[in-house]
Amino acid sequence: MCTEGEHSIILHNTIYVDMFSRLQDTMSRQVWVYRAGINGEYELLFIKNGIIGISTDLGINLPDADDYKEFKRKILSEMNIDSKTISNAYSIQYRMQVKDYVLVPSKITKRTYHVGIIESDVIYNTMFYPIRLYRRVKWLQKVSKDEFNDNTQHSMGSLITIFKVNASESSVKFLNDIEKEKMENV
Prior knowledge:
The chain is an alpha+beta fold. The chain has one domain: ph1033 like fold (Roll), CATH 3.10.590. It has 6 helices and 7 strands. The longest helix has 25 residues.
């Protein structure tokens, strides 16, 4: 049996280990910007249905690949698909991970992003046609682009459909705080 002092040490170590594992989990998360179509035409579909995805003619069996070049080679050997679609399929299939943050720029409210957390692996389904390849997302809230620091804002300016944001530590903390607040209010 532990004395009162020993119990405190064990409790303290448990809290420390728990905090450390949460910190590691947070640090390994990526932040992605995911444009909802060329003109934002899929924004409401994404938000209403809790998804992000691409419209594609790629079938349900995306090839296994060790890297992007191999993935692209395998797809082009079977189909005539443009490079942009291949890149987007590779990102959603292999680069994005469950628990990563995703920011979808709003075309409805300028300089605003929908903030979400990826909750599933890739799903192929025609339920959200023309979106066929998608992941489930838990949407947390909308935030102004101005909420992020300057470096993160600049890295969010690309016109590419799917890209990883070079998010600063303070921006990731900001996203963590949004998630934590959402979880506390559930």
